[in-house]
Amino acid sequence: MPKYIYLILTLTLILFSGCSSSKGQDIQVTKEMNEIITNHIKEHYKNVYHSGDRQFEAHKVYGAKENRGIVSIYIYSVYKEYRKDEPTERSGHSLPALVKLKKDGDTYKVIKYREPEDGSLYANSIKKMFPKEFAKQASLDAGNVPELHEQIDEEVQKWLKEE
Q1: E strand or H helix at 154, and its extent?
Q2: What is the per-residue pLDDT across 65-74, written as a single tens digit (0 to 9) for each?
Q3: What is the pTM of this model?
Q4: DSSP labels for 41-92?
């Protein structure tokens, strides 16, 4: 009987160690990673709204985990487009997102960008996309991130003063 107990304990340890490593190791998001995320989101939406001369994006990072060379970054993003001749927000959005990066030479590249589903699927899709520790905050932040709007407003004012 003791042989079975050791076997069960060993299998349990292997199972739990495999589960914890699949979550990944917490890592710090660098300035370079943040710039890559912003540029990707601007590029992703540049032909979606078609209503502005310039795009702006700001995001808040909840956390990041690395697993097998893939960095998963959990963010809340605000994206807006403006026209120079009419400096009011023309279009945009505000939402949580999952961005996956992979090392590409000396830099990173985005290999996946995912947003939550709309409507009644919104809350469940956030729970599927984000670790539990970040999902709740992402849901609470929905439409309530004034610091990101302020950051974009400052960038817009600098842009309008150019020329």
Answers
A1: helix 146-161
A2: 999 999 999 9
A3: 0.81
A4: HHHHHTTTS---SEEEEEEEEEEEEEETTEEEEEEEEEEEEE-SSS-SEEEE
